[in-house]
Amino acid sequence: MAEGNPPTELTQSQMLHIAQQIAAGMVYLASQHFVHRDLATRNCLVGENLLVKIGDFGMSRDVKEDSELENKVLNHGGEKKA
Fold first, then answer.
1. Average pLDDT over the chain, rounded to an integer
2. I need a labelling partner for 59 at 20 to 30 A (CA). Which of 24, 35, 66, 69 fits?
3. Is there a contact between 50 and 7 (Cβ–Cβ < 8 Å)?
4. Would residue 34 count as lying in a domain?
5. Which residue has the higher pLDDT, 73 or 39?
6. Locate the Protein kinase domain: which residues (predicted)?
7. Does residue 36 form part of some domain?
8. Dihedral angle sign, alpha carbons of residues 36, 41, 47, 48
9. Do 51 and 21 touch, CB atoms closer than 8 A?
């Protein structure tokens, strides 16, 4: 694909290529004993040359927030809990 403005429509061949990548990604996840549970277009990132990456962007977390919460739980009342 040339740089600049991307085409506004995908060809059937391009859509098939995207679908094949998604199917192959799901087969790979299954071979690794993972179940995605939320495969949807919102969880497919399409990059350059129509390379598709499957994610679960709704499950992403801010690591800093998680760490702060963990510290609050562990240090409740100034005592570290086991």
1. 81
2. 24
3. no
4. yes
5. 39
6. 1-82
7. yes
8. positive
9. yes
Question: Is the pTM of the predicted complex or chain greater than 0.85?
Answer: no
Write out the two tokens for 20. Answer: 């094949």
| Number of domains comprising the chain | 1
Structure tokens at 82: 């086991």
Contacts of 54 (CB under 8 A, 6+ apart): 22, 25, 26, 29, 36, 39, 43, 44, 45
In the chain, what percentage of residues exceed pLDDT 70?
A: 72
64 in any annotated domain: yes
Residue 2 covered by a domain: no
As a whole number of angstroms, the distance between CA 64 and CA 68 comes to: 6
CA distance 53 to 58: 15
